[in-house]
Amino acid sequence: MKSIAIGAHLLRDDVEPVAEAVPVGDLYLSAVAVADDQPLGDRDLLLRVAGVRAKLLDVATFVALRYGFTFTSAEEAQSKTLPFHGRWKRLLTAHRERVEITLKVAAATQTPRPDRHQFASGAEYLRALHAATQAATVDPLFREAAERLVVPLTVKHRWIHRDEKSVELAALVERTRLEEVREAGEELRATGVPFLLSGPWPLEVFADDDHE
Amino acid sequence: MSDERLEELPLLETLDHLLDRGVVIAGEAVISIGDVDLLYLGLNIVLANVDAVMRVSKR
Question: Does A143 lie in the same domain as A105?
């Protein structure tokens, strides 16, 4: 058997009985056990892990691990995550009552996605891809509205360029303010700009912060 | 857009977060050849997702 890691948690009770709790340092990894020959790309498995992830977030905020990290023993989990334990502990302690939300907005201006066949090297293609992503802009009226309606409800926020067709506002929010955020999202509809407000999510974007 | 497609949006967003966010443990980024296709699919889902939102808005 192998275990697919889902997140890092402060307490064992934050994980069990929803998922397997694996001690790493003084934290716990949540994990789902699967057969060794189980392909990680299996659709049903992905949905299962996504479902467990959502249930875990209902219990307590955790640091999300990107899908694909597997281990076969507690020792392996411990050694591979060791460099992160200190940061995770600080983040989990500081943000236990907070979750992330995502406001994805369609870009006002788009640069066409580069065609990889037109590049002589992978590096050139990646640079062009990065440039196209960074060129995406948000409608200034929408950005102003988001800064006025949503940002004041957040603990911290960050505008992120993810692809050439959208820009994203990721924010950390107190769980108790989620309803206010949803209401602010409703008000944003008046801008007429297409967007998708989603959450709550575990610590994903802000899982790299190390200055709490 | 059908109601069914609209209902897919939260699922697609969930998979996007699962596949594209969170802490990357060093040395674990490559899953397998089969899953590379899946990750590309995930990126396409994100784009389709935004496109879908735009279409919904125009209705």
Answer: yes
Q: How many domains does chain A have?
A: 2
Domain that holds residue A31: 2-94
CB-CB under 8 Å, B20 with A81: no
Comparing CA positions, the residue from A68, A80, A61, A104 lying closest to residue A207 is A61
User: Which of B7, B9, B13, B18 should we substitute to test contact with A (largest number of A Cβ atoms within 10 Å)?
Assistant: B18
Q: Name the interface residues of B facing A (CB cutoff 8 Å).
A: 9-10, 13-15, 17-32, 34-35, 37-38, 43, 46-47, 49-51, 53-54, 56-57
Quote the distance between the C-alpha of residue A78 and its chain's center. 22
SS3 A130: helix
pLDDT of chain A, 212 residues: tens digit per residue: 999 999 999 999 999 999 999 999 999 999 999 999 888 878 889 889 999 999 999 999 999 998 888 999 999 999 999 999 999 999 999 999 999 999 999 888 877 788 878 888 878 888 888 888 888 888 999 999 999 999 999 999 999 988 788 899 999 999 999 999 999 999 998 988 888 899 999 999 999 765 44
Q: Are residues A41 and A136 in the same domain?
A: no
